[in-house]
Design a protein that fits this description.
Length: 93
């Protein structure tokens, strides 16, 4: 039986992946990417994308929630505020 190897992490087209392989699978993976590594270069800095923080809509989610509740609209107490509510809030203000 093949022994488990440490998790292999790699990035392709800006997307990071992790895969759990056995030792023989890890070696096969290393052999498969070796020609590309040989002619490639290390990327500087972070190799994984980071998600932007915040909603990006430029409006105060608390204000939108308060306004929606005053209007008798259904609004989630937590999480992302639906864009339809943000648009309605912006139209009203």
């Amino acid at each position: 039986m093949d022994t488990p190897a440490p998790t292999v992490s790699f990035t392709f087209d800006g997307v990071g992946y992790q895969v759990d392989l056995t030792e023989s699978e890890r070696q096969a993976f290393a052999d498969a990417v070796a020609p590309y590594i040989a002619v490639g270069r290390r990327a500087a800095g972070r190799t994984t994308r980071t998600s932007s923080s915040g909603g990006g809509s430029g409006v105060d989610a608390k204000a939108v929630r308060a306004w929606a509740q005053e209007q008798g609209l259904d609004v989630p107490a937590r999480g992302r505020v639906p864009s339809s509510l943000i648009e309605a809030y912006q139209s009203a203000n």
